[in-house]
Inverse folding.
């Protein structure tokens, strides 16, 4: 074998001169005793020598390996091309350097940081290969662990958002080269925050781990499931793939989620919303594909959750607007841009001002005063309603105390509670705190709950309402008649008051059906010892009818529109 590099031959002769003074015995002792692993083969790769560090590290004795080839150490961790390129390098007379994963006699693996150098005779021919190396398993394992920490989610063990983005870039390049397609699926659990809030973070973590396990199990090995953060998972389906293939996967994902999850010993049904974007038809870049799937997921959520949506260009602006609204509402909450307006409520028998309903408004820096219809449903979906509602409650209690000390004696203030607030485990605590901080007595506070809020989690609602009622807080069912409950059903809850919805009030007294209905509601409510307040009263005819029907209270534009606290005091004094 001739060395193509003359320079290597020269350096060999120089080296022999410089080591000439050392005895052969010292040199062989040095080889034998060095802590480095040494292995020498002939030019055909047959092992002629291994030192004792080799024996210690691999567990093979000298006798077992002499005459064999180093391939006996192969671990299966490198492909054939890796070994081929190594051999090419050394056969060309160059040194090979690298970290190789080898296998010990007991099949355990070790990382060897290795240099393999060819040995030349005086004709420049390769006669031997000398491999020297260090066992670097510990530091490699540390590096691997560090890499794992950087690219994998510690809770679920799934690739994290950074690794997902790396894999997506690679998948896009592959799809581009092979003219293939791929799909990005964004999956978000519905109402995960509720579970976290009500069962605590440990149970929330358990749920995320189990979701990750089920998703991983439902998918093929070459699909990627990553955790994007929180309760968001991103699934990368490598091509070739079309909409029907994606639908089959979506089906599988829904069915893997359909078995109840066991949390804190109880069964919970957890659903998810999914959004899908496709390469190349929707987008071609990583960023846009992820954005597209996110937008589609939002759309699936907006349709009520537990469903999926494919991305389409026309949904983009709609969803972006909604995302923008969510974002600016969160900012608005932080900047304290939400204010309470108050609408007066009058006693129909005495004509006295009896209370005020707090109705929230958003003093938007660009849009001006925004009504609750625009942002309450958004806050309800995102969960921001819990803190928003708590602020409304505190402001309302404080306002009543301030009015009273300014000389306006107002018996009560009403505050609306959304379904999500009612099912929040801390609702009673929030009310206690608001009363305590402001010094307001409990029976000056009325909480208005819609029928749908009561029906959503009736057992939980009943428990919270019993607690609130026992503190002395008054409870009222809002928009009565718009849900599908009956007053007898509502008897399960300790309610004090029924608010007849505006849709009935607006048709009285002319519409006989509406008139009969209002009469029946008043009658039934009285028989259940509840008082009746009518909302949306706009005409004197309506007011007169309600008074004669025995309705105790009224509120509406005829008597006063919702107004700021300062206008309220002027209006009523
Ligand atoms: P609601 O609790 O039934 O409040 C009554 C709504 O009817 C208010 O609308 C009020 O302005 C309107 N209204 C009152 N009298 C009349 C009238 O004579 N004619 C007409 N056409 N409308 C009248 P607003 O302020 O837009 O509030 C809408 C809904 O938003 C409220 O309905 C309530 O469900 C919700 N909301 C308002 N503030 C809050 C809040 O702080 N928390 C929660 N969770 N919901 C709130
Ligand atoms: Mg109300
Ligand atoms: Mg109402």
């Amino acid at each position: 074998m001739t060395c193509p590099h003359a320079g290597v031959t020269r350096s060999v002769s120089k080296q022999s001169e410089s080591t000439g003074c050392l005895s052969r015995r010292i040199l062989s002792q040095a080889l034998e005793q060095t802590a480095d692993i040494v292995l020498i083969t002939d030019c055909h790769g047959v092992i002629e020598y291994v030192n004792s560090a080799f024996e210690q590290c691999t567990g093979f004795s000298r006798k077992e390996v002499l005459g064999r080839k180093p391939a006996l150490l192969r671990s299966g961790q490198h492909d054939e091309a890796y070994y081929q390129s190594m051999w090419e390098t050394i056969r060309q007379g160059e040194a090979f350097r690298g970290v190789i994963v080898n296998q010990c006699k007991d099949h355990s693996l070790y990382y060897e940081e290795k240099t393999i150098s060819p040995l030349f005779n005086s004709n420049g021919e390769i006669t031997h290969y000398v491999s020297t190396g260090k066992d670097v398993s510990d530091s490699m394992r540390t590096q691997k662990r560090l890499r794992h920490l950087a690219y994998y989610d510690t809770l679920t063990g799934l690739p994290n958002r950074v690794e997902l983005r790396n894999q997506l870039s690679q998948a896009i390049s592959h799809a581009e080269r092979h003219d293939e397609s791929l799909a990005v699926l964004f999956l978000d659990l519905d109402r995960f925050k509720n579970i976290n809030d009500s069962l605590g973070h440990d149970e929330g973590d358990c749920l995320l781990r189990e979701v990750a396990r089920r998703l991983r199990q439902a998918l093929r090995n070459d699909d990627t499931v990553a955790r994007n953060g929180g309760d968001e998972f991103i699934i990368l389906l490598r091509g070739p793939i079309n909409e029907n293939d994606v639908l089959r996967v979506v089906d599988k994902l829904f069915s893997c989620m359909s078995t109840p999850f066991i949390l804190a010993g109880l069964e919970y049904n957890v659903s998810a919303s999914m959004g899908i974007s496709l390469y190349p038809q929707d987008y071609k870049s990583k960023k846009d594909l992820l954005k597209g799937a996110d937008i589609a997921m939002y759309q699936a959520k907006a349709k009520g959750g537990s469903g999926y949506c494919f991305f389409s260009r026309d949904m983009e602006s709609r969803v972006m607007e909604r995302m923008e609204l969510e974002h600016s509402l969160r900012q608005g909450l932080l900047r304290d841009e939400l204010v309470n307006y108050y609408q007066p409520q009058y006693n129909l028998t005495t004509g006295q001002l009896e209370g005020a309903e707090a109705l929230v408004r958003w003093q938007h820096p660009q849009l001006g005063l925004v009504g609750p219809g625009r942002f309450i449903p958004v806050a309800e979906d995102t969960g921001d309603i819990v803190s928003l509602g708590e602020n409304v409650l505190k402001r309302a209690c404080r306002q009543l105390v301030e009015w009273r000390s300014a000389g306006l004696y107002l018996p009560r203030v009403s505050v609306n509670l959304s379904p999500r607030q009612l099912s929040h485990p801390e609702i009673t605590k929030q009310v206690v705190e608001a009363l305590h901080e402001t010094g307001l007595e409990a029976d000056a506070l009325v909480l208005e709950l819609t029928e749908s809020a009561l029906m959503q989690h009736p057992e939980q609602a009943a428990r919270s309402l019993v607690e609130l009622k026992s503190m002395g807080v008054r409870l009222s069912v809002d928009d009565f008649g718009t849900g599908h409950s009956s007053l007898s059903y509502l008897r399960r809850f300790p309610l004090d008051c029924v608010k007849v919805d505006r849709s009935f009030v607006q048709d009285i007294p002319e519409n006989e059906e509406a008139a009969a209905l209002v009469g029946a509601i008043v009658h039934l409510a009285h028989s259940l010892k509840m008082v009746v307040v009518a909302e949306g009263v706009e005409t004197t005819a309506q007011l007169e009818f309600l008074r004669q029907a025995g309705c105790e209270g009224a509120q509406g534009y005829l008597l006063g529109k919702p107004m700021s606290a300062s206008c309220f005091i002027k209006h009523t004094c």
